[in-house]
Design goal:
The protein is α+β, with helices and mostly antiparallel strands. Helix content is 23%, strand content 26%. GO terms for molecular function: dioxygenase activity.
Protein backbone atom coordinates (compact mmCIF):
# COMPACT_ATOMS: atom_id res chain seq x y z
CA UNK A 1 0.00 0.00 0.00
CA UNK A 2 1.09 3.60 -0.59
CA UNK A 3 -0.12 6.84 0.92
CA UNK A 4 -1.11 9.74 -1.37
CA UNK A 5 -0.38 13.43 -0.62
CA UNK A 6 -4.02 13.71 0.44
CA UNK A 7 -3.60 10.95 3.06
CA UNK A 8 -5.57 8.32 1.12
CA UNK A 9 -4.33 4.76 0.90
CA UNK A 10 -3.78 3.49 -2.63
CA UNK A 11 -3.26 -0.14 -3.66
CA UNK A 12 0.00 -0.91 -5.45
CA UNK A 13 -0.66 -0.92 -9.16
CA UNK A 14 1.07 -0.62 -12.47
CA UNK A 15 1.82 2.94 -13.57
CA UNK A 16 0.52 3.91 -17.03
CA UNK A 17 3.07 4.80 -19.66
CA UNK A 18 3.85 8.43 -20.44
CA UNK A 19 2.03 8.03 -23.77
CA UNK A 20 -1.12 6.93 -21.91
CA UNK A 21 -0.85 9.91 -19.55
CA UNK A 22 -0.33 12.26 -22.47
CA UNK A 23 -3.46 10.95 -24.16
CA UNK A 24 -5.40 11.30 -20.92
CA UNK A 25 -4.36 14.91 -20.46
CA UNK A 26 -5.06 15.75 -24.09
CA UNK A 27 -8.52 14.28 -23.83
CA UNK A 28 -9.26 15.89 -20.47
CA UNK A 29 -7.94 19.40 -21.11
CA UNK A 30 -7.47 19.82 -24.84
CA UNK A 31 -3.72 20.31 -24.52
CA UNK A 32 -1.07 18.59 -26.58
CA UNK A 33 2.43 19.18 -25.22
CA UNK A 34 4.76 17.37 -27.65
CA UNK A 35 7.57 15.64 -25.80
CA UNK A 36 6.78 17.17 -22.42
CA UNK A 37 6.00 13.83 -20.79
CA UNK A 38 8.23 11.64 -22.87
CA UNK A 39 11.48 13.51 -22.22
CA UNK A 40 12.61 12.55 -25.71
CA UNK A 41 14.00 15.94 -26.72
CA UNK A 42 11.19 16.71 -29.17
CA UNK A 43 9.80 20.23 -29.56
CA UNK A 44 8.48 20.59 -26.02
CA UNK A 45 8.60 24.39 -26.06
CA UNK A 46 5.44 24.64 -28.15
CA UNK A 47 2.11 24.01 -26.51
CA UNK A 48 -0.71 23.24 -28.93
CA UNK A 49 -4.14 24.11 -27.48
CA UNK A 50 -6.90 22.24 -29.26
CA UNK A 51 -9.45 24.73 -30.61
CA UNK A 52 -12.52 22.84 -29.44
CA UNK A 53 -11.49 22.93 -25.77
CA UNK A 54 -11.48 25.85 -23.31
CA UNK A 55 -8.20 27.17 -21.93
CA UNK A 56 -6.74 25.19 -19.03
CA UNK A 57 -5.86 26.76 -15.71
CA UNK A 58 -2.96 25.61 -13.56
CA UNK A 59 -5.35 24.70 -10.74
CA UNK A 60 -7.37 22.44 -13.06
CA UNK A 61 -4.26 20.59 -14.13
CA UNK A 62 -3.06 20.17 -10.55
CA UNK A 63 -6.45 18.86 -9.41
CA UNK A 64 -6.63 16.44 -12.31
CA UNK A 65 -3.12 15.13 -11.74
CA UNK A 66 -3.90 14.64 -8.05
CA UNK A 67 -7.33 13.04 -8.39
CA UNK A 68 -7.50 11.41 -11.83
CA UNK A 69 -3.99 10.05 -12.29
CA UNK A 70 -2.47 7.26 -10.16
CA UNK A 71 0.43 7.88 -7.82
CA UNK A 72 3.80 7.80 -9.56
CA UNK A 73 7.51 7.90 -8.74
CA UNK A 74 9.16 11.25 -8.07
CA UNK A 75 10.49 11.64 -11.59
CA UNK A 76 7.07 11.13 -13.18
CA UNK A 77 5.46 13.57 -10.72
CA UNK A 78 8.12 16.15 -11.43
CA UNK A 79 7.46 15.93 -15.15
CA UNK A 80 3.75 16.44 -14.57
CA UNK A 81 4.38 19.41 -12.29
CA UNK A 82 6.55 20.92 -15.01
CA UNK A 83 3.80 20.31 -17.54
CA UNK A 84 1.20 22.03 -15.36
CA UNK A 85 3.38 25.10 -14.91
CA UNK A 86 4.23 25.10 -18.60
CA UNK A 87 0.58 25.13 -19.61
CA UNK A 88 0.01 28.19 -17.45
CA UNK A 89 3.14 29.99 -18.64
CA UNK A 90 2.21 29.41 -22.27
CA UNK A 91 -1.21 30.90 -21.65
CA UNK A 92 0.45 33.96 -20.14
CA UNK A 93 3.02 34.22 -22.94
CA UNK A 94 0.41 35.60 -25.30
CA UNK A 95 0.15 38.62 -22.97
CA UNK A 96 3.87 39.42 -22.75
CA UNK A 97 5.37 42.49 -24.38
CA UNK A 98 7.35 42.06 -27.56
CA UNK A 99 10.79 43.60 -27.52
CA UNK A 100 12.67 45.19 -30.37
CA UNK A 101 16.12 46.70 -30.50
CA UNK A 102 16.29 50.09 -32.15
CA UNK A 103 17.04 53.69 -31.27
CA UNK A 104 14.58 55.75 -29.26
CA UNK A 105 14.90 59.48 -29.77
CA UNK A 106 12.93 61.97 -27.73
CA UNK A 107 9.90 63.09 -29.69
CA UNK A 108 6.68 65.03 -29.24
CA UNK A 109 4.46 62.08 -28.38
CA UNK A 110 3.37 61.29 -24.85
CA UNK A 111 6.30 58.91 -24.68
CA UNK A 112 8.28 56.83 -27.15
CA UNK A 113 9.08 53.18 -26.52
CA UNK A 114 12.14 51.39 -27.84
CA UNK A 115 11.43 48.02 -26.33
CA UNK A 116 7.68 47.39 -26.22
CA UNK A 117 4.95 47.72 -28.82
CA UNK A 118 2.32 49.92 -27.18
CA UNK A 119 -0.49 48.86 -29.52
CA UNK A 120 0.08 45.16 -28.88
CA UNK A 121 0.23 45.62 -25.12
CA UNK A 122 -2.94 47.60 -24.42
CA UNK A 123 -5.06 44.60 -23.54
CA UNK A 124 -2.34 42.35 -22.12
CA UNK A 125 -3.10 43.15 -18.53
CA UNK A 126 -6.87 42.79 -18.49
CA UNK A 127 -7.59 41.21 -15.14
CA UNK A 128 -8.39 37.51 -15.22
CA UNK A 129 -11.38 36.71 -13.09
CA UNK A 130 -10.82 33.65 -10.91
CA UNK A 131 -12.95 32.00 -8.30
CA UNK A 132 -12.26 33.06 -4.77
CA UNK A 133 -10.88 30.12 -2.80
CA UNK A 134 -13.39 28.86 -0.24
CA UNK A 135 -10.76 27.58 2.18
CA UNK A 136 -7.15 28.07 3.22
CA UNK A 137 -6.16 24.95 1.35
CA UNK A 138 -8.01 26.16 -1.72
CA UNK A 139 -5.77 29.24 -1.86
CA UNK A 140 -2.57 27.20 -1.81
CA UNK A 141 -0.53 26.71 -4.99
CA UNK A 142 2.46 24.39 -5.39
CA UNK A 143 4.86 24.72 -8.32
CA UNK A 144 7.72 22.70 -9.72
CA UNK A 145 10.88 24.64 -8.86
CA UNK A 146 12.62 24.70 -12.24
CA UNK A 147 9.64 26.14 -14.09
CA UNK A 148 8.53 28.66 -11.47
CA UNK A 149 11.66 29.84 -9.64
CA UNK A 150 12.22 32.71 -12.09
CA UNK A 151 8.72 33.64 -13.29
CA UNK A 152 8.28 35.61 -16.49
CA UNK A 153 7.16 39.10 -15.50
CA UNK A 154 6.66 42.05 -17.86
CA UNK A 155 9.99 43.69 -18.57
CA UNK A 156 10.71 47.29 -17.62
CA UNK A 157 10.80 49.09 -20.99
CA UNK A 158 13.14 51.77 -22.33
CA UNK A 159 10.74 54.69 -22.64
CA UNK A 160 11.17 58.47 -23.06
CA UNK A 161 8.93 61.14 -21.48
CA UNK A 162 9.71 64.20 -23.66
CA UNK A 163 10.07 67.75 -22.38
CA UNK A 164 7.51 69.03 -24.86
CA UNK A 165 4.80 67.73 -22.54
CA UNK A 166 5.56 70.30 -19.85
CA UNK A 167 6.45 73.18 -22.16
CA UNK A 168 2.90 74.12 -23.17
CA UNK A 169 -0.72 73.69 -22.16
CA UNK A 170 -2.73 74.27 -19.02
CA UNK A 171 -1.63 73.89 -15.42
CA UNK A 172 -1.76 70.15 -14.80
CA UNK A 173 -0.02 66.95 -13.69
CA UNK A 174 1.40 64.92 -16.61
CA UNK A 175 1.82 61.31 -15.41
CA UNK A 176 4.51 59.00 -16.82
CA UNK A 177 2.29 55.96 -16.33
CA UNK A 178 3.58 52.61 -17.63
CA UNK A 179 1.23 50.42 -15.61
CA UNK A 180 -0.31 48.94 -18.78
CA UNK A 181 3.11 47.60 -19.69
CA UNK A 182 4.27 46.63 -16.20
CA UNK A 183 1.00 45.31 -14.81
CA UNK A 184 1.12 47.51 -11.74
CA UNK A 185 -1.72 47.62 -9.23
CA UNK A 186 -2.02 51.34 -9.91
CA UNK A 187 -0.23 54.04 -11.88
CA UNK A 188 3.52 53.45 -11.96
CA UNK A 189 6.62 54.27 -13.98
CA UNK A 190 8.66 51.45 -12.47
CA UNK A 191 7.48 48.68 -10.16
CA UNK A 192 8.28 50.82 -7.09
CA UNK A 193 8.06 54.44 -8.26
CA UNK A 194 5.72 56.82 -10.07
CA UNK A 195 7.05 59.82 -12.01
CA UNK A 196 5.16 62.81 -13.41
CA UNK A 197 5.72 66.31 -14.71
CA UNK A 198 3.84 69.17 -13.08
CA UNK A 199 3.24 72.21 -15.28
CA UNK A 200 2.18 75.42 -13.47
CA UNK A 201 1.39 78.53 -15.47
CA UNK A 202 2.86 81.68 -13.95
CA UNK A 203 0.50 83.06 -11.30
CA UNK A 204 -1.41 79.79 -10.96
CA UNK A 205 -1.40 76.97 -8.42
CA UNK A 206 -1.98 73.21 -8.31
CA UNK A 207 -2.21 70.57 -5.58
CA UNK A 208 -0.68 67.09 -5.50
CA UNK A 209 -1.19 64.16 -3.15
CA UNK A 210 0.26 60.65 -2.90
CA UNK A 211 -0.06 57.73 -0.48
CA UNK A 212 3.71 57.56 -0.19
CA UNK A 213 6.56 57.43 2.31
CA UNK A 214 8.81 59.56 0.04
CA UNK A 215 8.15 62.31 -2.48
CA UNK A 216 10.81 64.18 -4.46
CA UNK A 217 10.38 67.32 -6.57
CA UNK A 218 13.06 68.61 -8.95
CA UNK A 219 12.53 72.08 -10.40
CA UNK A 220 13.08 71.86 -14.15
CA UNK A 221 12.10 75.49 -14.73
CA UNK A 222 10.63 78.47 -12.89
CA UNK A 223 10.35 79.66 -9.31
CA UNK A 224 7.64 79.53 -6.68
CA UNK A 225 6.71 77.84 -3.42
CA UNK A 226 5.15 74.67 -2.03
CA UNK A 227 3.16 74.53 1.20
CA UNK A 228 2.02 71.50 3.18
CA UNK A 229 1.72 70.25 6.75
CA UNK A 230 5.53 70.26 6.76
CA UNK A 231 5.72 74.01 6.18
CA UNK A 232 6.53 76.23 3.21
CA UNK A 233 9.52 75.77 0.92
CA UNK A 234 10.56 78.29 -1.76
CA UNK A 235 12.14 76.87 -4.85
CA UNK A 236 13.81 77.92 -8.13
CA UNK A 237 15.28 76.30 -11.24
CA UNK A 238 17.72 73.52 -10.39
CA UNK A 239 16.53 73.01 -6.81
CA UNK A 240 15.31 69.68 -5.44
CA UNK A 241 13.22 69.07 -2.32
CA UNK A 242 11.87 65.95 -0.64
CA UNK A 243 8.97 65.43 1.76
CA UNK A 244 8.07 62.38 3.87
CA UNK A 245 4.63 60.91 4.55
CA UNK A 246 2.05 63.63 4.04
CA UNK A 247 -1.56 63.24 5.15
CA UNK A 248 -2.93 66.13 3.14
CA UNK A 249 -2.15 67.83 -0.15
CA UNK A 250 0.88 69.80 -1.26
CA UNK A 251 -0.01 73.20 -2.70
CA UNK A 252 2.36 74.44 -5.45
CA UNK A 253 2.38 78.01 -6.80
CA UNK A 254 4.46 79.43 -9.68
CA UNK A 255 5.57 83.03 -9.23
CA UNK A 256 7.85 83.34 -12.26
CA UNK A 257 9.33 81.35 -15.14
CA UNK A 258 12.20 82.04 -17.51
CA UNK A 259 10.51 80.26 -20.44
CA UNK A 260 7.32 78.58 -21.67
CA UNK A 261 5.05 80.81 -19.57
CA UNK A 262 5.23 78.57 -16.55
CA UNK A 263 7.18 76.38 -14.16
CA UNK A 264 7.85 72.67 -14.54
CA UNK A 265 8.52 70.20 -11.71
CA UNK A 266 9.69 66.59 -11.96
CA UNK A 267 7.73 64.69 -9.28
CA UNK A 268 8.52 61.14 -8.11
CA UNK A 269 7.02 59.14 -5.23
CA UNK A 270 6.93 55.56 -3.97
CA UNK A 271 3.17 54.90 -3.86
CA UNK A 272 3.48 51.97 -6.34
CA UNK A 273 5.62 50.14 -3.77
CA UNK A 274 3.01 50.68 -1.09
CA UNK A 275 0.20 49.68 -3.47
CA UNK A 276 2.01 46.39 -4.11
CA UNK A 277 2.46 45.75 -0.39
CA UNK A 278 -1.12 46.76 0.36
CA UNK A 279 -0.08 49.18 3.09
CA UNK A 280 -0.36 52.84 4.04
CA UNK A 281 2.44 54.91 5.58
CA UNK A 282 1.98 55.57 9.29
CA UNK A 283 5.37 56.99 10.24
CA UNK A 284 7.47 59.95 9.10
CA UNK A 285 10.79 58.35 8.20
CA UNK A 286 12.88 61.46 7.45
CA UNK A 287 12.73 65.25 7.77
CA UNK A 288 11.86 67.33 4.67
CA UNK A 289 14.96 68.66 2.92
CA UNK A 290 15.88 71.22 0.26
CA UNK A 291 18.88 70.98 -2.06
CA UNK A 292 19.47 74.33 -3.77
CA UNK A 293 21.08 74.56 -7.19
CA UNK A 294 23.79 76.88 -5.87
CA UNK A 295 24.77 74.48 -3.09
CA UNK A 296 24.83 71.49 -5.44
CA UNK A 297 27.07 73.24 -7.99
CA UNK A 298 29.32 74.61 -5.24
CA UNK A 299 29.85 71.07 -3.93
CA UNK A 300 30.58 69.74 -7.40
CA UNK A 301 33.24 72.43 -7.87
CA UNK A 302 34.83 71.57 -4.52
CA UNK A 303 35.05 67.92 -5.58
CA UNK A 304 36.37 68.87 -9.02
CA UNK A 305 39.36 70.62 -7.49
CA UNK A 306 39.99 67.98 -4.85
CA UNK A 307 43.14 65.82 -4.81
CA UNK A 308 43.26 63.11 -7.46
CA UNK A 309 40.17 64.40 -9.33
CA UNK A 310 41.93 65.99 -12.29
CA UNK A 311 41.50 62.82 -14.37
CA UNK A 312 38.24 61.56 -12.83
CA UNK A 313 35.84 60.02 -15.31
CA UNK A 314 32.82 60.58 -13.08
CA UNK A 315 32.11 63.82 -11.30
CA UNK A 316 28.91 64.10 -9.33
CA UNK A 317 27.29 64.36 -5.92
CA UNK A 318 25.03 61.89 -4.16
CA UNK A 319 22.08 63.44 -2.34
CA UNK A 320 21.41 62.26 1.20
CA UNK A 321 19.36 63.06 4.27
CA UNK A 322 20.13 63.46 7.96
CA UNK A 323 18.03 60.36 8.66
CA UNK A 324 20.15 58.15 6.35
CA UNK A 325 23.57 59.60 7.20
CA UNK A 326 24.60 56.58 9.29
CA UNK A 327 22.90 53.97 7.12
CA UNK A 328 22.27 54.12 3.36
CA UNK A 329 23.38 57.73 2.72
CA UNK A 330 20.53 58.03 0.22
CA UNK A 331 17.98 60.72 -0.65
CA UNK A 332 15.35 58.97 1.51
CA UNK A 333 15.08 55.48 2.93
CA UNK A 334 13.56 54.40 -0.42
CA UNK A 335 14.88 56.87 -3.01
CA UNK A 336 18.40 57.53 -4.27
CA UNK A 337 19.60 60.43 -6.44
CA UNK A 338 22.81 61.66 -8.03
CA UNK A 339 23.60 64.91 -9.82
CA UNK A 340 26.07 63.63 -12.40
CA UNK A 341 28.15 65.67 -14.84
CA UNK A 342 29.71 64.39 -18.07
CA UNK A 343 32.50 66.59 -19.37
CA UNK A 344 32.83 67.64 -23.01
CA UNK A 345 34.05 64.91 -25.36
CA UNK A 346 33.85 62.37 -22.54
CA UNK A 347 32.49 58.83 -22.27
CA UNK A 348 31.40 57.43 -18.92
CA UNK A 349 31.96 53.71 -19.37
CA UNK A 350 29.16 51.20 -18.78
CA UNK A 351 27.88 50.34 -15.34
CA UNK A 352 24.80 48.50 -14.07
CA UNK A 353 22.64 48.22 -10.94
CA UNK A 354 19.54 46.32 -9.87
CA UNK A 355 17.44 49.43 -9.30
CA UNK A 356 15.40 51.10 -12.06
CA UNK A 357 16.72 54.55 -13.00
CA UNK A 358 14.33 57.34 -13.97
CA UNK A 359 16.84 59.70 -15.56
CA UNK A 360 16.19 63.43 -15.91
CA UNK A 361 18.38 65.03 -18.60
CA UNK A 362 19.07 68.32 -16.83
CA UNK A 363 21.36 69.83 -19.48
CA UNK A 364 22.09 68.40 -22.92
CA UNK A 365 24.25 70.87 -24.87
CA UNK A 366 23.28 71.84 -28.39
CA UNK A 367 23.21 70.50 -31.09
CA UNK A 368 20.72 67.74 -30.38
CA UNK A 369 22.12 64.23 -30.61
CA UNK A 370 25.56 65.06 -29.25
CA UNK A 371 24.74 63.70 -25.79
CA UNK A 372 23.22 60.24 -25.43
CA UNK A 373 23.06 57.02 -23.43
CA UNK A 374 23.68 53.52 -24.78
CA UNK A 375 22.09 50.66 -22.86
CA UNK A 376 21.72 46.91 -23.21
CA UNK A 377 21.84 43.60 -21.38
CA UNK A 378 25.37 42.46 -22.22
CA UNK A 379 28.98 43.61 -22.61
CA UNK A 380 31.52 42.49 -25.21
CA UNK A 381 35.16 41.57 -24.57
CA UNK A 382 36.17 45.24 -24.58
CA UNK A 383 33.54 46.34 -22.09
CA UNK A 384 31.19 47.92 -24.65
CA UNK A 385 27.43 47.45 -24.59
CA UNK A 386 26.27 44.78 -27.07
CA UNK A 387 23.42 45.75 -29.47
CA UNK A 388 22.63 48.90 -27.48
CA UNK A 389 19.49 50.98 -27.48
CA UNK A 390 20.41 54.65 -27.89
CA UNK A 391 18.54 57.41 -26.07
CA UNK A 392 19.40 60.97 -27.10
CA UNK A 393 19.21 63.52 -24.31
CA UNK A 394 17.12 66.69 -24.46
CA UNK A 395 16.87 69.33 -21.75
CA UNK A 396 14.09 68.53 -19.30
CA UNK A 397 13.27 65.07 -20.66
CA UNK A 398 13.17 61.79 -18.75
CA UNK A 399 14.06 58.27 -19.85
CA UNK A 400 13.88 54.87 -18.13
CA UNK A 401 16.92 52.64 -17.65
CA UNK A 402 15.79 49.05 -16.89
CA UNK A 403 17.20 47.14 -13.90
CA UNK A 404 20.40 45.22 -14.50
CA UNK A 405 21.08 46.82 -17.88
CA UNK A 406 24.56 48.04 -18.71
CA UNK A 407 24.54 51.70 -19.75
CA UNK A 408 27.16 54.25 -20.76
CA UNK A 409 26.85 58.04 -21.11
CA UNK A 410 28.41 59.87 -24.07
CA UNK A 411 29.02 63.61 -24.48
CA UNK A 412 30.32 64.57 -27.93
CA UNK A 413 29.58 68.27 -27.44
CA UNK A 414 31.85 71.13 -26.35
CA UNK A 415 30.07 71.74 -23.02
CA UNK A 416 29.32 69.82 -19.83
CA UNK A 417 26.15 67.70 -19.74
CA UNK A 418 24.17 66.98 -16.58
CA UNK A 419 21.82 64.15 -15.64
CA UNK A 420 19.77 63.54 -12.48
CA UNK A 421 18.76 59.89 -12.04
CA UNK A 422 16.23 59.13 -9.32
CA UNK A 423 15.97 55.48 -8.34
CA UNK A 424 14.46 53.15 -5.76
CA UNK A 425 18.06 52.39 -4.76
CA UNK A 426 17.60 53.53 -1.16
CA UNK A 427 15.51 50.40 -0.67
CA UNK A 428 18.01 48.22 -2.56
CA UNK A 429 20.92 49.62 -0.57
CA UNK A 430 19.14 48.78 2.68
CA UNK A 431 18.51 45.24 1.40
CA UNK A 432 22.18 44.89 0.27
CA UNK A 433 20.96 44.05 -3.23
CA UNK A 434 21.86 47.18 -5.25
CA UNK A 435 24.88 45.38 -6.76
CA UNK A 436 26.28 48.33 -8.71
CA UNK A 437 29.08 47.22 -11.06
CA UNK A 438 31.43 48.94 -13.46
CA UNK A 439 32.50 47.47 -16.79
CA UNK A 440 36.26 47.74 -16.27
CA UNK A 441 36.07 45.87 -12.96
CA UNK A 442 33.92 43.08 -14.40
CA UNK A 443 36.08 42.63 -17.51
CA UNK A 444 39.20 42.43 -15.33
CA UNK A 445 37.57 39.73 -13.22
CA UNK A 446 36.54 37.71 -16.25
CA UNK A 447 40.02 37.89 -17.71
CA UNK A 448 41.26 36.41 -14.46
CA UNK A 449 38.74 33.61 -14.84
CA UNK A 450 36.54 34.79 -12.00
CA UNK A 451 32.78 35.29 -12.08
CA UNK A 452 30.91 37.02 -9.25
CA UNK A 453 27.25 36.35 -9.84
CA UNK A 454 27.34 37.84 -13.32
CA UNK A 455 24.04 38.40 -15.06
CA UNK A 456 25.26 37.82 -18.61
CA UNK A 457 26.54 34.78 -20.50
CA UNK A 458 30.21 34.34 -21.30
CA UNK A 459 30.46 33.39 -24.95
CA UNK A 460 33.68 35.12 -25.97
CA UNK A 461 36.38 32.57 -26.84
CA UNK A 462 39.06 34.44 -24.94
CA UNK A 463 37.00 34.34 -21.75
CA UNK A 464 36.23 30.66 -22.14
CA UNK A 465 39.91 29.81 -22.62
CA UNK A 466 40.85 31.82 -19.53
CA UNK A 467 38.15 30.15 -17.45
CA UNK A 468 39.16 26.72 -18.75
CA UNK A 469 42.82 27.28 -17.85
CA UNK A 470 41.92 28.60 -14.42
CA UNK A 471 39.61 25.66 -13.75
CA UNK A 472 42.35 23.19 -14.75
CA UNK A 473 44.63 24.77 -12.15
CA UNK A 474 41.93 24.48 -9.51
CA UNK A 475 41.29 20.84 -10.43
CA UNK A 476 44.99 20.05 -10.09
CA UNK A 477 45.09 21.74 -6.70
CA UNK A 478 42.08 19.72 -5.57
CA UNK A 479 44.20 16.57 -5.54
CA UNK A 480 46.00 17.88 -2.47
CA UNK A 481 42.94 19.23 -0.67
CA UNK A 482 40.49 17.02 1.26
CA UNK A 483 36.88 17.14 0.16
CA UNK A 484 34.56 18.54 2.86
CA UNK A 485 31.44 18.73 0.71
CA UNK A 486 30.12 15.38 1.90
CA UNK A 487 28.14 14.99 -1.30
CA UNK A 488 26.17 18.23 -0.88
Amino acid sequence: MSISPTGRSNPERHHPTDEQRLASLQSEFGVSPPGSLRGDGSDDDIMQPLPQRPSTTLLQVQDALRDALPESPDMIRARHDALAAKIRLDQLSERRPRCVSHSSAMDDSSHSCAQVSMDESRTRFDKVQEEEPDSWEGAARIYEYGSAANPELPKVPVVVHPASLHESGATRVIPFDLSELLGGQGPCTSPNLMASYIRIITGESITTQAKATSQAYYVIRGSGSTSSEHGVVKWATGDLFVVPKTEGQLHHTCSAAEAHNGAALYWIHDQPLLDYLGVKPDEVKFPPALFTRSKLLETVEEIRHGPGMEHANRLGVLLGNASTEKTTKTLTHVMWSLLNSIGPHTVQKPHRHNSVALDMAVAAPWPHGKVYTLMGRELDANGNVVDPIRVDWADGSVFVTPPGWWHSHHNESDATAWVLPIQDAGLYTHQRTLDIRFADDEIALHREGRIRGTAFNITNKQYLEVVSTHQAQLDAADNDVPNFNYGL
